[in-house]
Write a structure and sequence with these properties.
The chain is α+β, with helices and mostly antiparallel strands and 136 residues long. The protein has four helices and four strands; from the N terminus they run βββαβααα. It has a four-stranded antiparallel beta sheet. Strand 2 and strand 3 form a beta hairpin. The chain is elongated. The relative contact order is 0.16.
Length: 136
């Protein structure tokens, strides 16, 4: 799912070249960057995180205002942010995904007799493998 939201960009008076970013349709969604490019990237990341939190909580995605209806404060300008929610969720999502697995009967009996949580063991093992790959 791709979404667009208008964002207000404000030059930082104290840091030359830096910008603050506010996404009016997403209450509290504020970010910034040391350059305009970084501000756009950070604004997109912040907005994507905001929307993903709503989706994972089962809430609807806020509708975007038309860009022409967004009026920035003095000194600011408005530009659109493009959010690729599928890519963002794949990388940052916390929602659990159901997986089926097949194991030998004797191993199932052992795990059940010892009150082993299959999901937790698989998650712990995959996390360890992921961390190993990240450090190699």
């Amino acid at each position: 799912m791709k979404l667009t939201y208008p964002a207000c960009f404000y030059p930082d008076e104290e840091r030359k070249g830096a910008y603050a970013v506010v996404v009016p349709d997403l209450p509290g969604c504020v970010s910034g960057g040391d350059t305009l490019v970084e501000a756009i990237l950070m604004g997109t990341d912040a907005a994507s995180g905001w929307v993903l939190d709503e989706l994972e909580d089962g809430k609807p995605v806020p509708e975007a205002s038309p860009i022409e209806s967004v009026i920035p404060d003095a000194g600011g300008f408005v530009s659109m942010l493009l959010l690729d929610m599928d890519a963002y969720a794949e990388k940052h999502g916390e929602k659990s995904v159901r997986k089926n697995l097949t194991i030998p009967a004797w191993l199932n009996t052992f795990a059940e007799n010892n009150h082993i949580n299959f999901s937790q063991v698989l998650q712990d093992s995959l996390t360890a493998l992921y961390q190993q790959k990240q450090h190699s």
